[in-house]
Structures are given as structure tokens and as C-alpha cells.
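User: Please predict the structure of the protein below. I'd like the answer in C-alpha cell form so I can feed it into my own downstream comparison script.

Assistant: Understood. Taking the following sequence of 165 residues as input:
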Amino acid sequence: MSKLFVASEVFHGAGSLSELKNLSGKKAIIVTGGLSMKKSGTLDRAKAFLTEAGLETIVFDGVEEDPSSATSLKGAEIMREFQPDWIVGLGGCSAIDAAKMMWVFYEHSDANYEAMTKPFSVPTLRQKAKFVVIPSTSGTGTETTGLAVITDKDKELNIQSFLMN
């Protein structure tokens, strides 16, 4: 028997971004890539909706294409310092995948990339934060899956982790 995990709620269409104003909590971190979310105004609008929800918000930007394990660990360290209730992955596949792994290492600083390549091996999440994804592209499906692809550039290894809990 196989089990399929998908996002519990999916909002789409005009006005979907405004759902951020309905989040409850104290702090949120937005994880994003290059400049497209800034240039389009989407980042500022997301921050405004989170502020309207009463959440203190910081941004981790500059996630590279084909995100590295180092970027994920750096983001997790920032999360441990900031202690967000919400993690918002904003942008393309790379930003979202990096945000997923940052979330894992935020909640479990002792997690191991190699161990997480096996299905169902990611430790239980949602103990410290919840996760929201706002994709800017279509076609990858990363916003609806429990999979993250990260590259360990030191080992020249692509790591596919299954976040299925």
C-alpha cells in the first residue's frame, strides 16, 4: 500500500495572497530567492498582509537557484534566533525547497541530510512553526508536495528529502 501526502489547504486565484492576513501568531519569516518578488511588489504585499495579521516579520532573501545545504543551514540558524511561528516560502521552487529544509533544521538542529533522503525519515514538524507556500511559478508542484531538493556542494550531491509528516 502507498500513501500520498499533499497540502492540507490550497488557495488559488485572485486575492489568495491576502489570506496571509488571517494567520495568527507572533512572528513570521519570509524565505525568497532573487529579485523578482521584490520587483513585482509581491514581497512588500506579503509583508503588509503579515503585518496586518499582527506578525513581526523578517525576510531571508537571496536563495540561489539549486539551493545549497549551506543556505538551508544559514536560514535555519536565523530562524532559531528569530523564533518564528510561521515560515513563508515565497517564489520559485528553489526558495520553497530551501524554506522546507530550513524549517526542518529550525525545529531539529540535529537533523541529518543524508538520513532524510529515505521516505518517512524526516522528524515530526509543526512543533515550533507552521509552513505556508506562495509559489510564483507553475509546473514544479513543490507547493503541494513533501519533497525538497537541496545540493550539498561540498559533496557534489543532490539531496532529495521527503517531508511527509
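That's the full C-alpha cell string. The longest helix spans residues 93-107.
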